[in-house]
Design a protein that fits this description.
The chain has 181 residues and is an alpha+beta fold. 19% of the residues lie in helices and 21% in strands. A 4-stranded mixed sheet has the order 2-1-4-3. Strands 5-6 form a two-stranded antiparallel ribbon.
Length: 181
């Protein structure tokens, strides 16, 4: 397997991932550059090596920043984080396919794109509700929208591990029962 398939898990100086959603990983080139710029410590390595005319080194699989970065106390409002808050299910019918998000107070009626006005909706439900208020459409979300904490999103995310988790990342992530053999 070539180096392009060897991302490095990036940890903060306290050895916690910088982020879980998305998982903080760097391309192998960025990890190697950070090593040479003395910005990270190598915590674990792959067996794969990269070579230049003057040096050969094992590719880092886990790196930790030398300087601590204060994590955000509030989660970013993103489509992914709305889906994560709502467990990737339509808040009207429970479907897990064709997910979009719906404004409870439609933008056409002055609704804003904020945590407390947006829910996950499948495309058919979103189309059926259209530009109407929830009472007008007789469509009410299962869970009222709210701004989650970073910790709540992390807890919700335990049910949705990323596609790739390398064995060397086991000690730093909470999906260890889901790791590839």
């Amino acid at each position: 397997m070539g180096p392009e398939n060897r991302p490095a898990l990036v940890l903060n100086a306290d050895y916690q991932p910088l982020s879980y959603f998305p998982l903080s990983v760097w391309r192998w080139q960025d990890a190697v550059k950070a090593v040479f710029l003395d910005r990270v410590n190598i915590v674990s390595e792959y067996e794969s090596r990269v070579r230049s005319p003057s040096i050969s080194m094992a590719l880092p699989s886990v790196v930790a920043l030398k300087e601590y970065i204060q994590p955000s106390r509030r989660p970013a409002f993103t489509r992914f984080n709305v889906f994560l808050r709502d467990f990737f299910v339509c808040q009207y019918c429970g479907s897990q396919s064709e997910l979009t998000f719906d404004h409870l107070i439609p933008r056409s009626k002055g609704g804003r794109t904020l945590w407390d006005n947006v829910v996950t909706a499948c495309a058919p439900c979103n189309l059926r509700k259209g530009g109407r208020l929830e009472n007008e459409a007789a469509m009410h979300p299962h869970i009222r929208p709210y701004e989650p904490s970073v910790r709540q999103l992390q807890r919700n995310g335990r049910g949705f591990p990323p596609n790739h988790l390398h064995e060397s990342w086991r000690d730093f992530l909470y999906w260890d029962s889901e790791l590839e053999p």
